[in-house]
Write a structure and sequence with these properties.
By secondary structure, the chain is an alpha/beta fold. The protein is built from 32 helices and 26 strands. It binds pyridoxal-5'-phosphate.
């Protein structure tokens, strides 16, 4: 093992020896031989390059980045040059306090990122003029598809959607993929949207503002379109450019029902196509249909206003196949970055940036017109389409030679899109490429658009013009949150491991961060090599033949994998095969994805021991002998166990003509130990933001590659604009970006290069050791619900609190919140079994941290006993009242039957130098939050300052 591996794995050799001894095993190999069923066990080492040092990995990544040629991108099509304010890059994007946080399901320890997301929603709501905005979607293309799905759900008429011919091509392609499965028919309005609306009974019409070619439909035209749509019972969906919205009237004013788009150009690097935050906002009445997360305001137990995720009952983890979408991981870190950009600039600053962009586009327009060239239209914001008959390639090549990327539309047209980073030098390059001369003159404009509606009036968008103040605001927000840089986050199924700094730094290299996704492939040679190698390595690790990195979350990988299965059955004349068998314990995304892929979900029961009930499986297979499409199982199971029966399940399903989908989110337990592609599965998705060290970012970015056996390789996603992104002839893309969240792929490349085959295997073994160690230490206090044949768990364990809850009234919620007082993030609550906690320590936690967690849990068990024996009343004890913010501890009237010290400084938290065992108190910024109150009184924008006056 190299130096990095020993730093990545938290337990040291002598700790491991002791932990193994406590479990009764002589070595890691002995332990994992007992835990992993022999039938699937990998015997040979993975064939990966030898592990490299951090220095060497960064040197190689720097060399790869240098082979990309970002130049200045003026290609447009939804991806624009922007300037990330250094204070935001340093304090947010590159700051572990932000990027190592988890999705804010535990709101008491997440008030910082929830506030930043509320700022995001307020910004989107203000700019679109619509009352309710979600926290973020995955990208603009999927946001368009989600908007159409919302409109389809609320309409009672037909299955036709009318789409602007000027929609971004990748958005149209993603929408086509989604509609394949749902059967919605897309009519692309070549002769105008109004004409198409008159001839088709459509449930929605989608308009791009400004269009892909830059033309800005007039406000009058858009108003008429809205009127026509509403008269015909259709919803108007607008895909709008956020920066343009600072100058043109809010879409709600001209009648849009749903507005979607990308927040990329608000300070988020191009990242070769992602990760970027998509946005969505809806009119009143559609809020319960919103896909993705919504941050809402509620109050805590002391009446203090506090944020938390609202309306969660719409989500896939509760509604499963009836969910509003399959979105789980979204793009929190990028949404936070965009909202901080708006806080940094304020409305005047944003408008000034927009005017600067617009004016530079007008200068170019004047020069081009004066040079005798014609433009696609008079009204535009930032993008021009220039007619240069027969000369387009030549113009694009001339600009490229001087470091500017233009868009080659076709042989006769060139697209030019001005960004925040387009300066005088770039304008001169463009003018000279076209052979025209820039003067002081301007031409064209916004037409009849003129924004009158105010935006960003909330004080948060005005208070931070001073960098000192902004720095403190951002620090204040992150201080409220509990991220991995504060302590262990033992969330089962989520694998919150170290995100090594050496792997994180390279994503900011200009060659990776600054590249537009649609540059000529020759200018993305570094990415091409990185992506190719990463696909090969992931194929080797999983035992599959082919990998696509395009899905930008696990949920999207599921959708892509199920679409591959669907395509395979269609190609083999089995259109009737649409039933997807899913065990009752599956992650909520599985069922939601199956429905999106046009499948029917049939639930398979769980046996007494937590495994898939083979009798029920056989019955369901028999019942659906003719229409079985697939089984979708998680391995190791969501119960944290290596099931012995997996090979038997694969065999039975194959025999019945079905395909086997193994949800690979738990791959961390199998690295170097077993390979789903070789033990019988046909397709899996992985979560690089779990197993492969990409940070969770507070709820995204994610990368959910889909890996398949050869027979499914023709059905991986592709992309309309980048041929190398996937096989020709497949169903299309699942993400707007050709390689999804390409910009964070260097993290996984670095992680694998640093670990090597031995290191990865050692990581999985160490994760299994840690989980079994925790299970063993806690099982007397909290029964471990399931274990495998040898009494071992895999990489996580489920602690069963149901009996304790019955006896004491103390719930899993109480334990989760009390852990906050002890300085921990809660384990996964009530998934996959209600009333339990699922603990996944990962390989990165040290023995000391594992012990600290176990001791906190044991202390909590003693507190539960004190409730049970009547020492404390059931409705007034440290568990029931947890967490305890400082404001409570110092309250003049302390009326509880336990001490303030016990409340705030329970065992394990004590003052003193950190290096000598001192441990700072983590203070939650609020007390327990009232979930129901917030759903009854839905507020999804920043509360007015008056709300805080008591
Ligand atoms: C995390 C997870 C998913 C979903 O992944 P996202 O990236 O959040 O969409 C699916 N299945 C399992 C078992 C998971 O743990």
């Amino acid at each position: 093992m190299n130096d990095f591996t020993t730093r990545h794995i938290g337990t040291e050799a002598d700790d491991q020896a002791q932990m193994l001894a406590a479990l009764g095993y002589a070595s890691l190999d002995d332990l994992t031989d007992a835990a992993v069923p022999e039938a699937i066990r990998l015997t040979a080492p993975l064939d990966l390059p030898a592990a490299l040092s951090e220095f060497e990995v960064q040197r190689q990544l720097a060399a790869l980045a240098a082979r990309n040629v970002p130049g200045t991108s003026m290609i447009g099509l939804g991806y624009h040059g922007t300037v990330t304010p250094p204070v935001i890059r340093r304090t947010v994007l590159e700051n572990p306090a932000w990027y190592t946080a988890y999705t804010p399901y535990q709101p008491e320890i997440s008030q910082g990122r929830l506030e930043a997301l509320a700022n995001f929603q307020t910004m989107i709501s203000d700019l679109t003029g619509l009352p309710v905005a979600g926290a973020s979607l995955l990208d603009e293309g999927t946001a368009v598809a989600e908007a159409v799905a919302v409109a389809h759900r609320v309409s009672r008429k037909g299955g036709v959607v009318v789409v602007d011919a000027n929609l971004l091509p990748q958005s149209l392609a993603v929408l086509r993929t989604r509609c394949l499965a749902t059967g919605v028919e897309i009519v692309v309005a070549g002769d105008g949207l109004a004409a198409a609306l008159r001839t088709h009974q459509a449930f929605a019409v989608v308009v791009q503002v400004p269009g892909a070619d830059g033309r800005l439909p007039s406000a009058a035209e858009l108003g008429e379109l809205a009127g026509l749509a509403h008269d015909n019972g259709a919803q108007l969906v607008a895909a709008a450019d956020l920066l343009a919205l600072t100058l043109i009237e809010a879409p709600a004013q001209w009648g849009a029902d749903i507005v979607v788009g990308s927040a990329q150009r608000f300070g988020v690097p191009l990242f070769y196509g992602g990760p970027h935050a998509g946005y969505i906002a809806v009119r009143q009445g559609l809020e319960r249909q919103l896909p993705g997360r919504i941050v809402g305001l509620s109050k805590d137990a002391d009446g203090v206003p506090a944020f938390r995720l609202a309306l969660q009952t719409r989500e896939q983890h509760i509604r499963r196949e009836k969910a509003t979408s399959n979105i789980c991981t979204a793009q929190v870190l990028l949404a936070v970055t965009a909202s901080c950009y708006a806080v940094h600039h304020g409305p005047d600053g944003l408008a000034a940036i927009a005017r600067g962009v617009h004016d530079r586009a007008r200068r170019l327009a004047a020069a081009l017109l004066a040079g005798g060239l014609s433009l696609a239209g008079d009204a535009f914001f930032d993008t021009l389409t220039v007619a240069v008959p027969g000369r387009a390639a030549e113009v694009v090549a001339a600009a490229r030679a001087s470091g500017v990327h233009l868009r080659l539309v076709d042989a006769d047209h060139v697209g030019v899109s001005v960004g925040e980073d387009t300066g005088a030098a770039e304008l001169a390059v463009v003018a000279s490429a076209f052979g025209v001369e820039l003067t002081g003159a301007v031409a064209g404009g916004l037409g009849d658009h003129h924004r009158e509606t105010d935006y960003l009036t909330h004080p948060v968008f005005h208070a931070y013009r001073s960098e000192t103040e902004l720095l403190r605001y951002l620090r204040g927000l992150s201080d409220r949150d509990f991220a991995l840089d504060k302590g262990m986050i033992p969330l089962g199924s989520c694998t919150l491991k170290l995100n090594p700094a050496a792997a994180m730094e390279p994503i900011s290299y200009p060659g990776f961060a600054g590249l537009h996704p649609f540059v000529p492939e020759a200018d993305a040679a570094g990415y091409a090599e990185l992506i190719g190698q990463l696909c090969d390595w992931l194929a080797e690790i999983t035992g599959y033949d082919r990998v696509s990195l395009q899905p930008n979350a696990g949920s999207q990988g599921e959708f892509a994998g199920l679409m591959a299965i669907r395509s395979y059955h269609l190609a083999h004349g089995s259109a009737n095969r649409t039933v997807c068998l899913i065990p009752a314990s599956a992650h909520g995304t599985n069922a939601a994805s199956a429905v999106m892929a046009g499948m029917r979900v049939v639930v398979v029961a769980t046996a007494e021991d937590g495994s898939v009930d083979l009798t029920d499986l056989a019955a369901k297979i028999a019942q659906h002998a003719d229409d079985l499409a697939a089984v979708m199982v998680t391995y190791p199971s969501t119960h944290g166990v290596f099931e012995e029966t997996i090979t038997e399940i694969c065999r039975q399903v194959h025999e019945a003509g079905g395909q086997v989908y193994v949800d690979g989110a738990n791959l961390n337990a199998m690295l170097g130990l077993a390979r789903p592609g070789r033990f019988g599965a046909d397709v899996s998705h992985l979560n690089l933001h779990k197993t492969f060290a990409i940070p969770h970012g507070g709820g995204g970015p994610g990368v959910g590659p889909v890996a398949v056996r050869e027979h499914l390789a023709p059905y991986l996603p592709n992309h309309p604009l980048v041929a190398s992104a996937g096989p020709a002839g497949s169903y299309g893309p699942v993400s707007a970006g050709p390689f999804g969240s390409a910009g964070v792929l260097p993290i996984t490349w670095a992680f694998i290069a640093l670990m090597g085959a031995d290191g990865l295997k050692r990581a999985a073994q160490s994760a299994i050791l840690a989980a079994n160690y925790v299970a063993r230490r806690l099982e007397a206090a909290f029964p471990v619900l399931y274990s495998g044949a040898s009494g071992l768990v895999a990489h996580e364990c489920i602690l069963d609190l149901r009996d304790l809850t019955r006896r004491t009234g103390v719930t899993v919620d109480d334990v989760a919140k009390r852990l906050v007082d002890y300085g921990f993030h809660a384990p996964t609550m009530s998934f996959p079994v209600a009333g339990t906690l699922m603990v996944e320590p990962t390989e990165s936690e040290s023995r000391a941290e594992l012990d600290r967690f176990c001791e906190a849990m044991l202390a909590i068990r003693a507190e539960m006993d004190a409730v049970a024996d009547g020492t404390w009343p059931a409705d007034d004890n440290p568990l029931h009242n947890a967490p305890h913010p400082a404001s409570r501890i110092v309250a003049a009237d302390w009326v509880h039957p336990y001490s303030r010290q016990l409340a705030a400084y329970p065992a394990g938290v004590r003052p003193g130098p950190l290096g000598s065992g001192g441990r700072d108190k983590y203070w939650p910024s609020v007390a327990r939050i009232d979930q129901a109150f917030g759903d009854r009184n839905l507020v999804c924008t920043c509360p007015p300052v008056a709300a805080y006056e008591s």
